[in-house]
């Protein structure tokens, strides 16, 4: 069985050494952020369970895998649909659908560059990376280095490809189209996740019962952490995103009622500006019946897109955010 549950949670990062100190800045998420949900502004894509174009595959056994990962680029939503061995493309501007056949039903993660090229990562079964053009042409295929034990995500900035391990470090990989079966070469490694646009990385960890600590850095250099304190206990960190402005979005699954229903949570998003200030907080429903690796993504313009699943369908919804640092471009 694939390791879904442990990888959805970003909270188990590295060793248990202290991540924050007395000089850390503490940002308080107001209780009102968790008392009511944000306003749903649009349902971008919805599809039934199935195999036809526009539908999504689901296996009703064991971990109930469904769509594993998704990304947004240039008004197009890309959805990794491994049960149907494909990535589906939903052009929201032209209301057009297409697909890329990826040749594997065990892919776990995807990333998309600004040209629309797609890279998929089969982290545990075939342990390989495949890159495709937007039209579906296989560009490169490579094996994951044996030194990377537990991949947890894949990223690209259009120039470089980064493979994350255990939500703790990222490795820049070199791929060669001339040697499609070769092992990818590790060029360098950094702690945390890449922020994009050359802004370095961001590293996050649970810090006590109701706090999340994050640190951004251009490399491995130490930096003063920022602590985000939530009004309720944090069950897990389930998302870490950034937009084009450098604002970091931490998504925490917060327990609704610790005394009665510890397993029930909602998703609270805290946006931290590049200056270390709280840019906004929003509450989303934790609404899923399948296992997957991504719950939300943040567009370059700062919009939040969430995948939701129930027994009838899959929905990708966009949330209206009440406040935001800087200008937001159209999603």
Describe what you observe in this structure.
By secondary structure, the chain is an all-beta fold. The protein has a single domain, classed as Neuraminidase (6 Propeller). Helices cover 2% and strands 47% of the residues. It is built from two helices and 25 strands. It has a five-stranded mixed sheet with strand order 1-18-17-16-15, with no helix packed on it. Strands 2-25-24-23 form a four-stranded antiparallel sheet, with no helix packed on it. The longest helix has 4 residues, at 5-8. The two termini are 36 Å apart.
Keyword list:
331 residues, mainly beta, five-stranded mixed β-sheet, 2 helices, 25 strands, 2% helix, globular
Helices, by number, come to: 2
Give the overall silhouette.
Answer: globular
Assembly type of the chains comes to single chain
Cα-based radius of gyration, to the nearest Å: 19 Å
Q: What is the CATH superfamily?
A: TolB, C-terminal domain
What is the succession of H and E elements? HEHEEEEEEEEEEEEEEEEEEEEEEEE
Cα-to-Cα separation, first versus last residue: 36 Å
Which band does the percent of strand residues land in? over 45%
Total number of β-strand segments? 25
**Whole-number mean pLDDT:** 84
Poorly predicted sequence stretches spanning 5 or more consecutive residues: 1-9, 11-22, 323-331
Structural class: mainly beta
The top-level CATH class is Mainly Beta
User: How can the largest sheet be summarized?
Assistant: 5 strands, mixed
Proportion of residues in helical segments = under 10%
CATH architecture group name: 6 Propeller
- Looking at CATH, which topology would you report? Neuraminidase
- How is the largest sheet built, in terms of strand order? 1-18-17-16-15
The total number of structural domains is 1
